[in-house]
């Protein structure tokens, strides 16, 4: 199933469906502490990122695929290949403090936008999780933002 999803994930049709069901997927994952998604048990590494809305000040959740870099989580602002950056990335630029729910636990994190060198190093790990990121970047016409989420000590 995972290899099929990775192949389909490169297509525009899959991106449209993904955008359509992402709200439902987020609610299912929140209700089950990430144990279930719209596709059943998640087979790809997923987390729920909670940021603070830059305008509203309210918590905003996004379900994202991630890669690991040691103890840190790495996420990419692909926004399904749309031309604009996802709202959660703008929220992180405004306030780097966030929360990650993954594998049934919640972790406070501080985010930073990856430097060019760091980004190049981390893109391979992200592509290993989801090969479609290159197609998303080409469709969007923009550099996809890569964020590193470091757990807060304590």
Automatic annotation (TrEMBL):
Record's catalysed reaction(s): oxidized coenzyme F420-(gamma-L-Glu)(n) + a quinol + H(+) = reduced coenzyme F420-(gamma-L-Glu)(n) + a quinone
GO molecular function, one term: coenzyme F420 binding
Pfam families (UniProt xref): F420H2_quin_red
GO terms under cellular component: plasma membrane
Entry's family note: Belongs to the F420H(2)-dependent quinone reductase family.
Name of protein: Nitroreductase
Native organism: Cellulomonas algicola
